[in-house]
Design a protein that fits this description.
single chain; 334 residues; alpha/beta; 4-stranded mixed β-sheet; 8 helices; 33% helix; 18% strand
Length: 334
């Protein structure tokens, strides 16, 4: 699962320590998946998964792994690597094996709920990933002391869910982040940081089967059936995103290529020729494009972390102190 580093202007724990939280996120997810998969394979009753504090469990697992040579949960069983939630090495260039990462006390827990008995490992995996998505949204909008109110529409956002659940752990996702540039807020679209490149994505997905006729003008024509309408040329926004990120990277001497993508999972692009440096991804080549991204197996890179940190250094954040949040949520006593 890709890591949601920043969602609009919500508080993000990745802003606290970007070198630690990517590895911690993967460790928490891996531990929970192995525990649940083990219970399922042993035929244990998982109708009510027991609550486990993720970070406490992660710390215990980390210590056990560092000082002893333990066998894997399923030693001797037939291995099905395709069924693992994630096999991406995440910590090569971030944290030395000898470094001890102190775990932050957390108010976050992952409590999956079984709504039906999974009959196959595929069903179990899908149930786990779907429920972990909700945990991931909390992970990306809160810290120990602060919390942001998450708009419910993001829980139903199919693009956000697809990117997080389809791409591997070594991707860092900025989803419509709001940056402060010269004291002015600037909202970007989707920024996807792979180990080797920064991908800027502008999305056109208003109607199914829409055809977007593009050109160099300020507006494109959107054709839906017999109706035509105008939409803003998406390459304008892409150019603005590229300009902002290029300036930020240049200031910090970051060598990270920036790619530009116009995406429509449910429509088509009709563009005579091809603008320089822009890739059009529509229904015809969407699966090929996403599969190409999934095959990036490189561990996270130091330059990738630096580039992501540079963006985080400029983001706008709106959050509440947890104490204030809790007091506001309590009913007023008369």
């Amino acid at each position: 699962m890709a890591q949601l580093v920043k969602l609009q202007d919500y508080i993000s724990r990745y802003q606290i320590d970007l070198a630690r939280y990517p590895t911690q996120f993967v460790r928490l997810k891996k531990n929970q998946w192995e525990r649940i998969k083990r219970q399922w394979e042993l035929g244990e009753d998982i109708s009510e998964w027991q609550h486990v504090d993720n970070e406490v469990e992660a710390e215990a697992y980390e210590e056990k792994e560092r000082f002893t040579f333990i066998k894997k949960w399923f030693a001797g069983r037939q291995k099905e690597t395709t069924e693992d939630v994630e096999e991406v090495e995440i910590s090569n260039e971030l944290v030395s094996d000898e470094d001890i990462i102190p775990e932050e006390e957390t108010t976050l827990t992952f409590e999956p709920k079984i709504v039906y008995a999974p009959q196959s490992i595929h069903e179990l995996k899908r149930m786990f990933i779907d429920q972990f998505f909700h945990f991931q949204m909390k992970w990306a909008s809160s810290t120990l002391r602060e919390k942001s109110y998450v708009d419910p529409r993001f829980m139903r956002d199919s693009l956000l869910r697809m990117l997080l659940q389809t791409l591997p752990d070594n991707y860092l996702l900025f989803y419509y982040p709001i940056l402060q540039i010269r004291k002015a807020p600037i909202e970007l679209d989707v920024v996807l940081m792979s180990p080797t490149e920064c991908i800027c994505i502008t999305v056109l997905e208003a109607e199914n089967q829409a055809v977007y006729v593009g050109g160099s003008d300020r507006f494109w024509i959107k054709k839906v059936g017999t109706k035509d309408s105008k939409v803003l040329n998406p390459t304008i926004n892409l150019g603005r995103m590229e300009s902002v990120l290029s300036q930020l990277f240049k200031q910090e001497d970051i060598d990270m290529p920036i790619r530009k993508v116009v995406l429509s999972r449910n429509g088509y692009f009709d563009y005579p020729g091809s603008p320089f440096g822009v890739r059009f991804v529509d229904r015809r080549n969407y699966h090929e494009w996403i599969e190409h991204l999934r095959k990036v197996s490189s561990p996270m890179k130091h330059m990738q972390i630096r580039a992501a940190q540079t963006i985080l250094n400029t983001v706008q954040t709106t959050s509440f102190n947890r104490d204030i949040w809790q007091q506001a949520s309590q009913p007023t006593e008369e």
